[in-house]
Specification:
This protein has about 240 residues and is an alpha+beta fold. The protein has a domain of about 140 residues. About 20% of the residues lie in helices and about 15% in strands. The strands form three sheets. A three-stranded mixed beta sheet has the order 3-4-5, covered by helices on one side. The chain has a two-stranded antiparallel ribbon with strand order 1-2. It has a two-stranded antiparallel sheet with strand order 6-7. Strand 6 and strand 7 form a beta hairpin. It is elongated and about 100 Å long. The N and C termini lie far apart (about 125 Å).
Length: about 240
């Protein structure tokens, strides 16, 4: 009796397993594309690229001296093949001083008439600039303005963040900061931002100046030492 029940149970299991199997549908058939819903056969649309587009380079700027002894940015559009060429052209313009239109608008320069500026190289975003102030260089208290003109002008070029000033023999020049400290290290625009005018620019000076610092004496490197001020002399126009 038990054997009969076991055989019957085994037959039931086999029958159920056979009925649950996949039916033999024969060879594959081609489906009419029009019968496929929701355009499932359509070409997938590629997702829009999220890669950031390169930023357009800002216009290089010259920094000139106002009648209130502040530095003002003047746009200097230049056509050149790269940052070194643009920077060399800017340094040449800065050494020549303001043009007639800029002088008419009240702009001058703290650099002396015999100043010579040339670019040695740009390496790791630092421009090495050879500086010769000439025999009639600016007075001691005007040197920060003169150096600020060079540094701010150079760092307005894309790819230049710092400036190292050297002599003809390649030795670093000890340059003054607005707070009277001296340094031989490369300097940047923020070091001279306190000298930049915050007044609106005129039609001959449309460049945007960096923000001025409320207290340029705070945070000076420990190796910078104070320097004494001397009597001023008129700016070269």
């Amino acid at each position: 009796m038990k054997l009969t029940r076991f055989v019957l149970a085994l037959l039931v299991v086999c029958a159920v397993s056979t009925s649950c199997g996949l039916p033999d549908s024969g060879p594959p058939r081609q489906i009419d594309p029009s019968s496929v819903p929701y355009h499932l056969l359509g070409t997938a649309t590629a997702a829009p690229s999220t890669k950031a587009q390169p930023l357009r380079a800002t216009t290089p700027r010259l920094y000139l001296l106002t009648s209130s002894n502040r530095l003002r940015a003047v746009e200097a559009p230049l056509e050149s093949s790269g940052p070194p060429q643009v920077l060399q052209a800017l340094l040449a313009q800065l050494a020549q001083g303001p043009d007639e239109a800029q002088r008419a608008s009240g702009l001058a320069t703290a650099l002396g008439p015999g100043v010579a500026l040339s670019l040695n190289q740009v390496r790791e975003r630092t421009a090495v600039v050879q500086l010769d102030l000439g025999e009639q260089g600016p007075a001691a208290n005007r040197l920060p303005l003169a150096i600020g003109q060079v540094v701010l002008t150079a760092t307005s070029v894309r790819g230049v963040d710092r400036v190292k000033l050297v002599r003809a023999d390649g030795k670093a020049i000890e340059v003054p900061l607005p707070d009277g400290a001296l340094t031989v290290e490369p300097v940047q625009a923020d070091d001279y931002a306190s000298l930049v005018t915050t007044s609106p620019t005129s039609s001959t000076s449309t460049g945007q100046a960096p923000p001025s610092r409320p207290d340029p004496g705070v945070g000076s490197p420990p190796d910078r030492k104070a320097t004494s001020s001397a009597s001023g002399e008129p700016a070269r126009s």
